[in-house]
Amino acid sequence: EVQLVESGGGLVQPGGSLRLSCAASGFTFSSYWMHWVRQAPGKGLVWVSRINSDGSSTSYADSVKGRFTISRDNAKNTLYLQMNSLRAEDTAVYYCAREGEEQLVVNQLYYYYYYMDVWGKGTTVTVSS
Amino acid sequence: QTVVTQEPSLTVSPGGTVTLTCASSTGAVTSGYYPNWFQQKPGQAPRALIYSTSNKHSWTPARFSGSLLGGKAALTLSGVQPEDEAEYYCLLYYGGARVFGTGTKVTVL
Known about the structure:
The complex is a heterodimer of chains A (129) and B (109). Chain A is mainly β. Chain A has strands at 3-7, 10-12, 18-25, 33-39, 45-51, 58-60, 68-73, 78-83, 92-106, 109-119, 123-127. Chain B has strands at 4-6, 9-12, 17-24, 36-40, 47-51, 55-56, 64-69, 72-78, 86-94, 97-100, 104-108. Chain B is built from no helices and 11 strands. The chains are: A mainly beta (129), B mainly beta (109).
């Protein structure tokens, strides 16, 4: 069964740090880009960060740039999010999600399709004193 | 800062049809933004419905369809069922970054 399981959430004081993990199983983890997405209580989904399949390229939302670091260990099938200088507004459920790519060739033209298809159940981070 | 805007709420009768849209503050949404659509019910993780504008996942019910409409991405629910009551989010690709829409609460009444 294809599965993502997040862990590492908890209560942390403002200015503190936390490292989230996302354990992948049931698929070839090293072939997929991965994302972190968060959702504050009662609010919408917010994209946080992504990492490519071999970990050589990353992107971040402006709200977390310079404070959060995404990484992965393909040997351990695990995605990470190191969160530093945490603020109250970082309080949220954090989801990891898999992103895949399909390629279609028609008349020697290449068409690409991208999808974010598998999500974990999330881990809750609360930043409060 | 890029903002992706959806209708805050829509109401539809069982068996009816409703269309949700997804607009980008940067201009018209095209297939190059690879629009994805997700459904989320309270207390649950999001579930993928549509990818790259109009492609369905193997688990996506036939009554859900995606398209481009008037410079926006669109999700149409035809023959709405009570279980379709949920929050729906679009996702657009901006190079290496992604931006979720503000979400649409669909009520089946």
